Amino acid sequence: MKHYCLCINCLEADNTSLIWAVGEVESNLLAICRCPNGHVQISGLQHDLFDVLFTSGIDAYRKGFYSESVMSFAASLERAYELFIKLNLFKTDIPLEIIDKFWKEIEGQSERQYGAFCSAYLMTVGEIWNADQNQVGFRNKVIHKGYIANSKKAKEYAEYIIGCLNKIMKAIKENFAEQKSPLYFHIKNLAKREVEKALKENPGAKYSADSRPSLLKWNNRNHEDATFEDALALAERFAKIIGEQI
Ligand SMILES: [Zn+2]
After folding, report:
1. Quick one: which of 10, 112, 125, 156 has the fewest CB in 10 Å?
2. What is the distance between the alpha carbons of residues 177 and 90, in angstroms, rounded to a whole number?
3. Percent of the chain scored above 90 by pLDDT?
4. pTM higher than 0.85 for the full model?
5. Distance (Å) of CA 126 to CA 129, 165, 175
6. 53 Cα: distance to centroid of ligand 1 (angstroms)
7. What's the CATH code, domain 49-175?
8. 41 alpha carbon to ligand 1 midpoint, in Å?
9. pLDDT in tens, 210-241
10. Which residues, 6 or more positions from 178, have their beta carbon under 8 angstroms from its beta carbon?
């Protein structure tokens, strides 16, 4: 996934200059970006992984890669399940290091993760999580059978996913307010070593913590349901800003 950050070096040389450095985001949410003037910048995304994957899905949809958008939306939901499971465990005072070890046992098996999430959700919210089997079937056809999604189907799937994510984000804000920040910083600390390595491998590079507005309104203090249309419009606006600058 492409990533854009404002070049600090260019900004320091001329504080009116807004030059964008471009790179690719990896799973550790770091991107090694380069500006047109040759400056290198290690950009660390401040969002949670599920939020970044959702943005990736919206970007793919905007560009007409509908099947690819479905894959990113599906991945986003699975990473939201992961966050919810970990927060639920952390709330019972299980140390984060133990939670990391526990996760390794189910890391490669999405069905086990889904089972853990359904239990955690019922325990926390008191309601049974119901997946829409039509949408699950559609996702499986795209991911496992090479089914090519059209815009209509991909949009319906995106709306289903955003509905699921809204429910999960609301439940997190209402139930895990105290656990959210420590877990977030725990995950970011794990990436610190990789930042140091990237800085060593790219002499002269600078580090920046970056974020573009969450299309899911995840960083809003109070919960507000995100919509597909709003997410699309926000992504379009950001694309225009970037397009004007490059
Ligand atoms: Zn620069």
Report:
1. 112
2. 12
3. 85
4. yes
5. 9, 17, 12
6. 27
7. 1.20.120
8. 8
9. 877 899 998 877 778 999 999 999 999 988 88
10. 91
